[in-house]
Amino acid sequence: MQYTPSSTRYDNMNYIRCGKSGIKLPQISLGLWHNFGAVDKFENSRAMILRAFDLGITHFDLANNYGPPYGSAEETFGLILKKDLMTYRDELIISTKAGWDMWPGPYGNFGSRKYLIASIDQSLKRMNLEYVDIFYHHRPDPETPLEETMGALAHIIKSGKALHVGISQYKPEETKKAASILQQMGVKCLIHQPNYNLFDRWIENGLTNVLDELGIGCIVFSPLAQGILSDKYLNGIPSDSRAGKERTYLKRSQITEEILNKVQKLNELAQKRGQSLAQMSLAWVLKNPTVTSALIGSSKVSQIEDSVDALKNLKFDDDELSQINEIIS
Ligand code: NDP
Hints:
The chain is an alpha/beta fold. Helix content is 37%, strand content 14%.
């Protein structure tokens, strides 16, 4: 069936300026790390992307190796773009990344100029795009000189293959250095992509200050701790959940008794606020003034709907915040 986007798609989403830049991102963005590979059902992947767009999610985040197999999430997204969304390309912010293992041998991993430039070319081909809006270096490379990695990002911008560049998982000092090298080459670091959620608050120890100071936006990944910050694991591990499936990055052993005790208490608090735990967890990351967008994953259309509904209640009172701090301490 031919897709026509909802005419009300911009009515209920908030769009937040990404650092000191001209780009605004939706407060909820969708990532394609899991559930969009060739092993997944195409019609479900397509339904999630289209429902997200209908709800005002204009930003979709990929990486060269999302799948499985590697590359296949970009292929799936490319097919959906071609079939349904190409007319709306200018309404979309599409990002991809390179930095983790992608192809065999010494040139398909980390941060060399050769890897990053070859990888963006492959990504554009898989998605059938002329450019991406944001290209990231996916993680710091301890061996390649930062000048080479940032030089590759600057080259990618100057060759028109990406409109903006970003970095992911860089620590505060590395972020400062990377942004400064880019600046010397006339390129602004638009955005940083760190992990952040109720159980993992590392960005509060220095990174957010650096991002504020440098005017770099912040999109936080795994805001639901891969689904642990929802009610789904409170009565066992469902077979269709990330922890219940094979070949995912969430292991059963990560769902410990100690974690579940905390999740149970957080769930009770969320219920008192009239929210699902997933919604409260998203509201909590979004209350950090440095955070531009919460980058969610999803396995079902209904999860995207639930997550976007978090925007209906983003406020916390002092008592709720101290209860949360007590539970997670
Ligand atoms: P989340 O923490 O949002 O976890 C997503 C999972 O949570 C879903 O697959 C689903 O689990 C569950 N879920 C989502 N919404 C709901 C809901 N409303 N109610 C109940 N359960 C829900 O994020 P991800 O870990 O998936 O990461 C998001 C994105 O961040 C990735 O797709 C990727 O784009 C990016 N990322 C970047 C990294 C980097 O190094 N830069 C690393 C990791 C991710 P289930 O499948 O069990 O149903």
